[in-house]
Amino acid sequence: MHFSHCSLTLRSLALISALTVGCVMPAQVPSNQPPSNQPPSNAAPPPAPSSAPSAGPAAPPQSHTPQQQQPQTQQQQPQQPGAQQAAPTPEQLATVPTIKARVNEVNLIFTVTDKHGNFIKNLQQSDFALLDDRKPPQQVRQFSQQTNLPLRVGLIIDASSSIRLRFKFEQDAASDFISQVLRPQTDKAFVTGFEQKTHLLHDFTNDSDALGTAIHKLQPAGGTALFDAIFTACRDQLLPVRAEGSLRKAIVVISDGDDNMSRVYQEDAVKMCQRAETLVYAISTNTGPDRDRGDEILQSMALATGGRAFYPKRIEDMPNDFHSIEEELRSQYSLVYVPTDFKADGSFRPIYLTTTDRRYQVRASKGYFTASE
Q: CA–CA separation, 246 vs 144, rounded Å?
């Protein structure tokens, strides 16, 4: 979680027990049991890296964007564009770092919509009720509507054989999205492509032309390792991101959701997104009349992180979904609070956020991992 040094008085949360709004269900502590969609036992493990082109009252759930914090600049060895990124091993899963903080504050990012999906702005702190680990927060320090935060966005594109027929249009729509959403003065993005392997096509940059060129270098081929790609992008690109002040972190996944080659489970990928305080937005490439298993996977991952999944009926509708993602990233609330009975033990703390107005729905992360001391 990221933290700030602002102060705000906490109002009573007695209204929580009377709430009946079904906005965000209480998150449950993830079980240690792997999800049902396990990788096939005969899936070929990705090889080692090589040079291959190809969050008183209430508070809003989390998108865990970094809040005001002293600069923590970390020098990373830049990765070569097009370099294949290694899929995580079980040993690596056990040693993934959690974001450290000097103060036990949570910055919860959330979105409020009506039943038609329209964004609701100008709400007040008293309009929400929050439970963190099934307890009201100890103190709310800041509540604000944030519309122009700097963005750190990752575009993750499925380049497996299953999307070959519609791939060119997806590339064009993704490139247009980057051009429209990226503000060179404040925003940065990276591009990752995947089939059975994950390729970093271009690391963080504010150059939309360079990102567009990288997107169009992708060629569809092979199987689908969706979970590996999301895990790797959050671990390698988004988890290390630190900044002075606030910013928004998100990944946009373009895929049919049908994973058949990953070495990690869906649960592992979701946990890594939560550790990296990253929203997942997904655009399904399935254009059939009914949702399939892959669509449900995309929906599940998006909801767990406070993002959203889109299901265009025609591939030509994809630009509209990209526009909705851009609008949502600029139309969110932030609530910074101190959790009750907080322990820095690396545990998962579920979040339940709701609004007092039955007409509205709240979308936020279902929880977060604390830092281990």
A: 12
**Is pLDDT of 229 > 70?**
yes
**Sign of the four-CA dihedral 3, 349, 27, 276:** positive
User: pLDDT digit string (tens) for 77-113?
Assistant: 444 445 566 655 544 544 443 333 445 889 888 999 9
CA distances from 178 to 87, 185, 194, 342 (A): 26, 14, 18, 39
b or e along 182-199 (b: 16 or more beta carbons within 10 Å of the residue's beta carbon)?
Answer: beeeebbbbbbbbbbbbb
For residue 244, name the pLDDT band (cuts at 50, 70, 90).
Answer: low
What lies within 8 Å, CB to CB, of 248 at 6+ separation is 63, 65, 109, 146, 149, 150, 151, 152, 279, 329, 332
Distance CA(73)–CA(287), nearest Å, equals: 43
pTM of the model: 0.70
Pair type for strands 83-85 and 198-205 = antiparallel
